[in-house]
Design goal:
The chain has 332 residues and is an alpha/beta fold. The chain has helices at residues 20-36, 50-53, 86-90, 104-118, 129-135, 148-154, 182-191, 224-229, 248-255, 284-296, 298-315, 318-328; strands spanning 8-11, 40-44, 58-60, 73-77, 94-99, 122-126, 140-141, 166-170, 195-199, 214-217, 233-236, 260-263, 279-281. It has a 7-stranded parallel β-sheet with strand order 3-2-1-4-5-6-7. A 6-stranded parallel β-sheet has the order 10-9-8-11-12-13, sandwiched between helices. α1 (20-36) crosses α12 (318-328), α7 packs parallel to α10 and α9 packs across α11 (298-315). The chain is elongated, with a radius of gyration of 21 Å.
């Protein structure tokens, strides 16, 4: 297809079907494509995961073949992967770098690489205000958008469930995704009659080593929608050395109508109003008290969950998508 200079190229390694950068890139692609038609393309600098390659038209950048994104706008989603000298041949008119991994050194390296080889000014898009402040780099803040289909499935009315109060969370099985004191908190909650359901735990955790009442399953072993439907409360905290840049999983839980109880350091805190559409805590003791309060107060769970769902809807509204499209010129 001949490039008229208005082409938008979304670039990511696409290695992990559950990765935050991959999902952000795909949601950006869907949002822009719905408003710009065939002028939006997906590219990778590596071999994409088969699950993504089979579902999306992802093209591999091969410089010697001349198979690369040319002119138009380059949307590089993630600062954690190298690009290369193909940028010189691409000759982009505009470069947008999406930053969402809380790695300032890599951000600096990627900006330098893009400026050196890309030949255009580099605009940085941060996934949260907190991440922008930590990086100390100017740029706009663009909260990731959930896929419409996912949002609709998650936003179905929750049915009343009999039995134990279930608190849980899901994430990748990475050390940074879990706080050093989490396991102690889960054991305390289990001792008070809660069922703690975890999909994707710390790499060192093993099911046989956990207390009774704590269930551990591998990442991706259950679809997100039924997993969240089985919870009464979503509890989330990451390692003290890895504050969550945004936290897509938190917005998913809010879309499912769950009261979320989250550590105050994450980017998601920018959309949580404490006590209204979710809860923020600083210590494990605070989290413990909030969860037990929710356990004993079904009306509070229902009210906070409904407000959480409304917030998620607003974050993923068509008006927001139109605003994103205008930023990239996809509405032209």
């Amino acid at each position: 297809m001949r490039d008229d200079g208005r082409q938008i190229h979304v670039i990511n390694p696409f290695r992990n079907p559950l990765g935050g950068s991959e999902l952000w890139a795909l949601e950006l692609y869907r949002t822009l494509r719905a408003r710009a038609g065939r002028r939006v393309e997906l590219w990778t600098v590596a071999s994409p995961a088969p699950a993504l390659r089979d579902r999306y038209p992802i093209r591999r950048i091969v410089r010697w073949r001349g198979q690369l994104p040319r002119a138009g706008t380059l949307c590089v989603v993630g600062a954690y992967f190298r690009l290369g000298r193909w940028l010189r041949a691409a000759r982009p008119r505009r470069i947008v770098l999406h930053y969402n991994t809380n790695e300032p050194a890599r951000l600096a390296a990627r900006r330098a690489e893009l400026a050196r080889w890309g030949g255009a000014d580099v605009e940085v898009v941060h996934c949260s205000e907190r991440l922008r402040a930590r990086a100390g780099v100017s740029g706009v803040v663009e909260l990731p958008i959930l896929e419409c289909g996912t949002l609709d499935r998650l936003a179905l009315p929750r049915r009343a469930r009999a039995g134990s109060f279930v608190v849980g969370r899901h994430s990748r099985e990475a050390r940074g995704k879990h706080h050093a004191e989490d396991l102690d908190l889960y054991r305390r909650l289990a001792a008070r009659g809660c069922v703690v359901r975890l999909m994707g735990g710390h790499p060192s955790w093993r099911p046989e080593g956990l207390a009774t009442g704590i269930e551990l399953a591998p990442t991706g072993s259950v679809e997100v929608e039924p997993f969240l439907a089985g919870l009464d409360c979503f509890l989330y905290r990451t390692a003290s050395w890895w504050p969550e840049p945004f936290g897509r999983v938190v917005v998913e839980a809010m879309a499912a109508g769950l009261p979320v109880v989250c550590h105050a350091s994450g980017g998601y805190a920018e959309v949580i109003r404490h006590g209204e559409n979710g809860f923020l805590f600083e210590t494990g003791d605070e989290a413990y008290g909030i969860v037990l309060r929710l356990k004993d107060d079904p009306a509070l769970r229902e009210a906070v969950g409904a407000a959480a769902r409304a917030t998620a809807r607003a974050l993923c509204s068509e008006a927001r998508k139109d605003e994103v499209a205008r930023f990239y010129g996809a509405d032209a």
